[in-house]
Records
---
Amino acid sequence: MSRHPRPESGLTVHHPEYWAVTKNLRAISERTLKPDVNWSKQTYAARGAFLREVFKVYPEFKQPKGSWPQVYAMRLLSTQVVQARRRQAAAVAQQPAEERKRRVLEAKRTRPKVFVEVPPRRYNTRATRAHTVISISSDGTSLQTLTGATTPTVSDESRIEELLGSIDSTLRYLAPRFVEAGISDRTRLLCLGKWPKAQVEDLLKTVVQLSAYEYRAVCMGLAELLKNSAV
């Protein structure tokens, strides 16, 4: 096997061994990495196993840090994640409305019901109880709750879907995730735009499980809507 170009330049499709190398890298990634999960979310052990196996076969890629095989794996996994989300969105879109409602009800029955004491509202001096959006963050601390007079209902999914559609028509498929997390009406969703950025990121990425792209799109859309909406 002839020596590859230096890692920083990487392989191009014009290199005679490009397809053979990428085929091997794909096979190694399937053995060592979790599919449909971004590189940054892979475990340290999985990433290490991938790189060790690659460097055994292609030692010329070992230096410098951030070598081409890692870049290739990052792009491959990112593509897999996007494709998986597209398949999920297509599957959800094809489901009858009753089936989607059934899934939301099932998720609400199985997730924990957490209620916490929230600070007094400005117009009152008494503390009130409110339904929370799964109020425990990834580090175990409480998130600020979204206060509301009623518990979310399944019928609110269409309103959340409509609001997400006004941000970006391709984001409608996220409505069930928001409803399952307890964000079930326009007021609660728009309230996120007034939260501290760190709490919003923790909630949307940890609880609602948005990707980086979905997170940016939702935040930008909410900021724009808040300019023209009164919560």
---
Amino acid sequence: IALSPGAAGDRVTGGGATRAEALRHGPVVLRGQAGCDAPPPATEGEARPAAVRLELGVNRFHTDQAEAEAMDKALSARRPGARATAFAVISAGEDGRGRLKGVILNGRRTDLTWF
């Protein structure tokens, strides 16, 4: 998966079967998969963006119970169709693997410092 810098964070700009192929589409490359879901039909005068799904090999992290419960509560309160308020902070290793460095939830960043 190739990523390129954008105003609101990196964005997916392409991919390839090899690292060299992916690098033609963006300066940051991670192992993974991307997919795009078409939006539901829009009503007249209403635009609906498509949803991009990324699988970068980061699917869990560990934190203390209180922090986990606060995050769960904030994520559960999100309304369908509302702007995203949860983001992952991922670094790209030389091996192409993504590593979770932190999460941003409702504007609050929590760095994972247990290394």
